[in-house]
């Protein structure tokens, strides 16, 4: 999902039954993800390994659906982020405020079982042959969130706007080439 200047993605998380802590991987790197399919043409996205190496993660919060009062925060060490070869890992202590404790109970009851993250991009490219958007560097991470629905359904809503734009551009190029081909045929007659 993309809103103005932030993007969102989702992944699973797990909870520690002994304490009010959750752990998860809000961002996976090195894996192509199908973001959109239009007229049988598939569009993918991949976050490159190393994309988080220079990311500003100094003030990140754990939220619910990317909004509201934070349940945990990096600035007070209730949220820990760890960049690894396979992506961004997180752990959060939800025992420190009412929002966190409520979120923990909601996770325990099965109301939330997915995560998402909000970010801005510093560097990206697009491989037209494979129709893959490649995120090379993430500039800033704003939040990791427990989400009501798996983020790929959310992501696809706005990611479709990006993918639809690519599909539309490719369609226009193909139409222009076909028009040029027909024009050349007419001038030969």
Topology:
Elements: E1 2-3, E2 6-16, E3 21-28, E4 33-38, E5 41-47, E6 61-64, E7 67-73, E8 79-84, E9 87-93, H1 98-108, E10 114-127, E11 132-147, H2 151-188
Parallel strand pairs: 5-11, 6-11
Antiparallel strand pairs: 1-2, 2-3, 2-10, 3-9, 4-5, 6-7, 8-9, 10-11
What would you report as the Rg, rounded to the nearest angstrom?
A: 20 Å
State the total count of DSSP E strands.
11
Helix coverage percent of residues? 25-40%
The helix tally amounts to: 2
Q: What structural class do you assign from the helix and strand content?
A: alpha+beta
Number of domains: 1
- List low-confidence stretches: 150-161
Query: In sequence order, what are the helices and strands, one letter per element?
Result: EEEEEEEEEHEEH
- Overall morphology: elongated
First-last Cα distance = 51 Å
Main sheet record: 11 strands, mixed
Percentage of residues in strands: over 45%
Averaged pLDDT: 80
